[in-house]
Amino acid sequence: PRPIIIDTDPGIDDALAIMLAAASPEIDLLGIVAVAGNVGLEKTAPNAAALADLLRLDIPVGRGAAGPLWRRDTKPAWDVHGEDGFGGYTLPASTRVLEPGVPLMARLIEQSADPVTVVAIGPLTNIAGLITHYPETARKVERFVIMGGGTLDRLGNTTPAAEFNIYYDPDSAAKLFDFGVPITMVGLNVTERALVGLQHLPDLVASGGPAAKMVEHMMGNYHSEPTEDGMAQHDSVALAAALDPSIIETGHYFVDVENVGRLTSGMTVVDFAGHSGEQPNCDVALSVDLPRFRALLNTRVAQLDAR
Ligand code: BDR
Ligand code: CA
């Protein structure tokens, strides 16, 4: 199995992605590190710990950055995830002792026998911390698979030009794209098409266990532009791409992040035509196999409650 660390701001779609990771034999989940984003760190960190308890994960959970590197005008996504981050679903509070997040990530990367994939599904503040404080360690990461940004017709869900995770902390995102390690960017151009509703999760619903109950509640309280076909499960697409890269199609391009622009701060600028003259630095997701993605969530997460 592929060793993975999840960096996350749980978050409804984050929770489902963590469940998918926990249920997938292709993955050896080494640890979970929380970051501020959808809600504040005082909620994302306990949420990550409580979820690890629910899933009976015997792995460390870290408490990372409490806010963006420089930006001071970002707001949580209470409207999408509720004030508690789980759409009002209360898990028993965890008694785990949380480790400082960035040192934990560095330790797990150093201790792993095989190179680690970091799946970052929140703002990239912890990742920038890793690059700044542990650059040698960060170079050992096999790949960063991030949910963030967008391209073509789907650039923004927070401003016309910017996706939430990148908008929240564009300076950290820019550091990652500038660092020169393999990156897969799973952006809104793909995740807004990864629509999932309970109708696609019959096995999961039928399993009726604790994870299923939580998913059922969250899906009813997840306000990510609901459609007839369900809601965008952004973060699970990144997780699915980490466990099976063939589930997405990608193109290799140079990507940079606008962290100054008046109208476009937080925009991921993908150089499709090679105007910049820069070497490609990112595998940009262009499409997802939706039936396979839905089936993966349905069958895998249903098994969690049977363990
Ligand atoms: C991203 O922002 C958050 O609200 C979601 O959890 C996801 O990571 C989508 O833009
Ligand atoms: Ca997230």
Automatic annotation (TrEMBL):
PANTHER family in the cross-refs: INOSINE-URIDINE PREFERRING NUCLEOSIDE HYDROLASE (PTHR12304), NON-SPECIFIC RIBONUCLEOSIDE HYDROLASE RIHC (PTHR12304:SF15)
Q: Where is the Inosine/uridine-preferring nucleoside hydrolase domain?
A: 4-294
| GO molecular function terms listed in the Swiss-Prot or TrEMBL record | hydrolase activity
Give the UniProt keywords, A-Z: Glycosidase, Hydrolase
InterPro entries, alphabetized: Inosine/uridine_hydrolase_dom, IUNH, Ribo_hydro-like
User: Gene3D superfamilies per the record?
Assistant: Ribonucleoside hydrolase-like (3.90.245.10)
Q: What is this protein called?
A: Nucleoside hydrolase
> From which organism does this entry originate?
Leucobacter iarius
Q: Does the keyword Hydrolase apply?
A: yes
